[in-house]
């Protein structure tokens, strides 16, 4: 977690180590396998380049990207793979400001009728339980993004016996975070 915090501080300050991480010697060293220190479940938004915002290079992060940083069986399976096969000990669910998937969900909930494709509706339906309780309070998009991140963290913590066992034995930590597109800063939610 501290390694991610330090990398984000470098990113925000405009002092990156990324060029060193891309040299051909590093690529060659990874041919035989990978050993990422963290899994990042992030939104697929093009403004959220995970390796860049944490100033990490090849082989450092196991990145899973999906609109709205939602949790579905394939994401759970990917986290299980990274934890079991690669020995990764940290999972960060990374939401971000101005998330289009969360905003689309809020708009969908405000409409009387729904006209989304079944595939897009599948994303909205995964975000809906996190944001629906906020609708009566007139919550902001920022509040909805944070609620969605917390829901995804909970789904990972409670959606797999394998992950639950790793958490109980302190072999895995799952935390939430929010990236500010405006400032470049990552805020870790409820993290040690």
SSE diagram, text form:
Layout: H1 2-13, H2 18-21, H3 24-29, E1 38-42, H4 50-53, E2 61-65, H5 73-85, E3 90-96, H6 100-110, H7 118-131, H8 141-158, H9 161-168, E4 173-179, E5 186-189
Parallel strand pairs: 1-2, 1-3, 3-4
Antiparallel strand pairs: 4-5
Helix pairs in contact: 6-7, 7-8
Q: Helical percent range?
A: 40-55%
| Strand residue content | 5-15%
Low-confidence stretches: none
What is the approximate shape? globular
* Main sheet: strand order: 2-1-3-4-5
Q: What gap, in angstroms, lies between the N and C termini?
A: 9 Å
Query: Count the helices. How many?
Result: 9
Largest sheet: 5 strands, mixed
Broad structural category: alpha/beta
Q: Tally the beta strands.
A: 5
Mean pLDDT: 90
SSE arrangement, N to C: HHHEHEHEHHHHEE
Radius of gyration over C-alpha positions, nearest whole angstrom:
17 Å
Question: How is this structure best described in words?
Answer:
- The protein is α/β, with parallel strands linked by helices and 192 residues long.
- The chain is 47% helix and 15% strand.
- A five-stranded mixed β-sheet has the order 2-1-3-4-5.
- It is globular and about 55 Å long.
- The model has no long low-confidence stretch (mean pLDDT 90).
